[in-house]
Amino acid sequence: MIERMSTTSFERSIPEPIKTTAMSQPITARNAPIGTRCGMAVLVVLAFITITVAVSYALVRSQFTAVTIEQNSDAIQRAQDAAWAGASHALRQLHSADWGGTGSSETVHLTSAVQFTVVYRAGDETLPIDDTSYPYRVTVNVTGRVVSTDGSPDTTYPILLVVQLVPRQLSGEPAAWKSMTQRSLTQWNASRTTKIDIPARIEGPVALQGELRLFDGYPAGTNPPVAYANDLKRMAMVEQNDYRPFNGPAGVGPATRGSTGYTYLRDILGVPTYHLSATDTPAFLETNVPTTYRLYPGGPEYAIPALPATLDNAILQADPRTNPLGIYRLAGATELGDDVSIEGVILSSGHRLRFRGTGITVKATELPELADNREIYSLPAIASAGEIRIDSGSSATCQGFVLAQSRFRIEADTGPTVFSLNGSLATAELKIEEDNRWPTSSSWWQAALHMFQMTFLGSGGYFPEFVYEEYGLDPRPQILIKLPSGTNRYHWQNWNEPVFVPHPDDEGLRWSLIRWSSGTAASGGVLN
């Protein structure tokens, strides 16, 4: 029997159709191709890789930079350490006996890659052009260096030092030099002459070895020169007007004591004397005239310029950069004319130096004071192996030591001739010749003496003042040589040696650190 299914059961057995909604995707969309989904994934992976590489590069670069900075910092520090080692080395070298001098340089290797270089240069370019400290300064450039091994530039570090010489010792002097500089006059040759005609005066200590001639031309006759000389002494003792040719004390050698002038000197003029042996003064004081000189061992060499044959209206003085002592030499016979001023040293190997003008001044160079005794020394104003001659009618002033090895001569005056030496004179022969305005006739002088005696009979008076008032014969010296006041001392320089040399207590020269700078930092001040 066929069972009939109920309608209700049948309906329940048939599946219900799938319903769609607005949120549901079409079947075709859900079944899209696989290649589309893979492309998106690749892009995501590539982006991730890019970011990772970038971050990694940044990290590597940062690490490399840190390493480079550390390496550079280490190189700079090593270069700086090398530079300071070089500065210390340079200062030790400056004080040592084997310093190479200005213009020298040296490189010292501390390791295969680390070194320093030192360069010594004369002077200090920060000083004004006329600063007298310039020739005594040395600029030291020190460079520490780390040599690169990878082709990059070397690492360097600079240090600059400026030092100044501390003068402690002058070069050696002749044995008789000191005693000569303590006299106004040293005439050392026993076979030569010292001749002085009034009005002229050499004031202070003298040493005479040759014949002495006083009152040789005038006053003339037998009694007038004795009366004149005796009254010069009386004026000095009573009136304090000392116009005597000498006032002493005078050291006299055997030849001087045997001359007629010695009687005037000791017995009539009343000059104190003492005996000298022939060896008390040098027979010969050598002068050498080079063409260059140095201030200190290792210092720059300065050229000594030659004076022209004739010099007029000129001012010559030291130049701190080219001729710091103002040394000049004679290349031949030389004449100084009107208005010539020389501050320095005149050297001559035998050529004659002639003063023929007016307004001439020669002043010796003063050296820097010595560190220990604070004494100031002057070089000779003139050092000549030849003759120095002062022409009639000239006027000149010299300050310092003057050496005229052959002769010092002031010519017969038709004048007036005016010459002043504030210093010391050393010569083999001295001639101060007569003033031609003074009479030389013995009869004239005898008559003048008779007139004086008649005028002042029993009432005093002085013969020199009488002939001055009556005849215009002025007894006041127009030629004057005397030691300077004060404590200045003179130094004789052998120009083959430097002026300043190491002190016996020092290994080398002594220097003061004036200024230093390093890198971009600098320090000023004076450090001894």
Task: Walk me through the structure.
This protein is an alpha/beta fold. 24% of the residues lie in helices and 29% in strands. It folds into two domains: 70-168 and 505-527; 177-490, no CATH class. The protein starts with 6 loop residues before the first helix and ends with a strand. It contains nine helices and 33 strands. β12 and β13 (301-303) form a beta hairpin. The model is unreliable at 1-15, 17-29, 64-70 and 520-528 (pLDDT under 50). The chain has a 15-stranded parallel β-sheet that branches. Strands 9-6-29-27-25-21-18-15 form an eight-stranded parallel β-sheet. A six-stranded antiparallel β-sheet has the order 1-2-3-4-32-33.
Question: Summary?
Answer:
By secondary structure, the protein is of the alpha/beta class. It contains 9 helices and 33 strands.
Produce the secondary structure layout.
Blueprint: H1 7-13, H2 27-30, H3 34-94, E1 105-109, E2 114-122, E3 137-146, E4 155-165, H4 177-181, E5 185-187, E6 193-196, E7 200-203, E8 206-208, E9 211-214, H5 224-239, E10 250-252, H6 254-257, H7 260-268, E11 273-275, E12 292-294, E13 301-303, E14 306-307, E15 310-311, E16 314-316, E17 327-330, E18 334-336, E19 340-343, E20 345-348, E21 353-355, E22 360-363, E23 377-378, E24 382-384, E25 387-390, E26 395-404, E27 407-410, E28 418-427, E29 430-432, H8 442-455, H9 463-471, E30 479-482, E31 489-490, E32 511-518, E33 521-527
